[in-house]
Amino acid sequence: MVQLMHLDLRGNKITGNIPRDFGKLNMLSRALLSKNQISGTIPASIANIYRLADLDLSDNQIEGPIPDVLGRMPVLSTLNLDYNIISGNIPQSLLSGSGISILNLSRNSIDGYIPDVFGARSYFTALDLSHNNLKGPIPKSISAASYIGHLDLSYNHLCGQIPKGAPFDHLEASSFTANDCLCGLPLKQC
């Protein structure tokens, strides 16, 4: 079992928790467990899977916070946690240049501020934080990211002026709709 490299159990009505010792599957490169009824929290032991590149736990009933150690995984490039009941803050390690290029945390109960930790090592083909309870301003450091292709911050409680420059100059208004008081292009002037 420890030699397992690809685990694809999508859409199987699996219930229960992810085992705490899931991290013993140290040869795993893909873990696709979306569209089940998995509950409980994300075990921190997942970070022990050195080769894990794709982790998809979307469309389940996972709760609790996102373990900070996920942002320190050496080859993790896709992390999909959307459509769960995850709460707590966004770990800074996920945004500050972890190597994750597709990050979907949408449709959860994540709150707090978007960490202002983006930098030259932050590279996202897609970053979706929509449909959460995020508050405060959009961090100005997002403009320092080396690339952000798709960004969705809609349906939160964000407030303040949308920063100027990349990636904001190519985004549609739909990326920012249904927030408390965002203003500036592509929305109405402040």
UniProtKB/TrEMBL annotation:
Pfam families the UniProt entry points to: LRR_1, LRR_8
Stretches of the chain forming a coiled coil according to its record: none
UniProt-annotated location(s): Membrane
GO cellular component: membrane
Superkingdom, natural source: Eukaryota
SUPFAM superfamilies: L domain-like
Keyword set includes Disulfide bond: no
InterPro entries: Leu-rich_rpt (IPR001611), LRR_dom_sf (IPR032675)
Alphabetized UniProt keyword annotations: Glycoprotein, Leucine-rich repeat, Membrane, Repeat, Transmembrane, Transmembrane helix
Family indicated by similarity: Belongs to the RLP family.
Name this protein carries in UniProt: Uncharacterized protein
Organism: Kingdonia uniflora
Lineage: Eukaryota, Viridiplantae, Streptophyta, Embryophyta, Tracheophyta
